[in-house]
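not sure who needs this but someone in the group chat was asking about Anoctamin from Leptotrombidium deliense so here u go. i didnt clean anything up, its just raw.
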Amino acid sequence: MGVDPVTEKPVPVYPIHKTWIKEYLVSLPLVFVCLFLAFKVMMFYFAVEAATVQYCKQNPSFMNGALVHLPGVGYALVVIAISHFYRIFADKLNNWENHRTQSSHEGHLIIKLVMFEFVNNFMSIFYVAFYIQDMSMLKWQIGTLLVVNQIVDNIQEVFLPLWASRKSNEEISLVKKQDLTEDSLKIIRESKLPVYENTYFDYLELYIQFGHVFLFASVFPFAPILALINNLVEIRSDSFKLCYAFQRPHQRSADGINGGWM
């Protein structure tokens, strides 16, 4: 038991040393295991790409000229898939650690996300830049990761919410036969939509994009232009997502960007 600093009444308190044990003896090693697995996936990709390039050189044709770029696109999709599953894992791991305050919970989750996403998204670029040292391959790697990431993010934020919204409207159309007002139907429609939990992944998307622009614009000058186009689309897609694809978010006061983003 502990004492609440505001009410000065006894309250149950989870021992802080147990949280530290979970953080440093369980969570941290597991995060490094995930990083190692992401590294092994990257090395497998480079092996596949080297074999593909060798095959295309030995068998030159128009189709093989396009085939040589397929491993890069596939790896970009795999990076996105790995990030998706890691985010679910990191969220469950962070909840299991049982942090005392919401700010501590958010801060530790952001650290887990940022550390893994930086390595997962950028290690192949650094590998090409400093180990393989192939400038044309580096440009292709940066462009592929950036463009594929932007396309997939916009599909997730526009087309998937649009599909969910239409599905919700179909369910509402079955209820319209009842004697309900438009306001009641609007409430029912919104209750069928998923809950907008937080802004973690929106900020994370911008973090990855900023990394591509800030770190590699000198190598891939089109990165800022692609980022600008993506952000113009993102303004409308995010507004659509918040207005039509999710339940209305609860108001929450904040001094600035929450967590450890700044």
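also The mean pLDDT is 85. if thats useful
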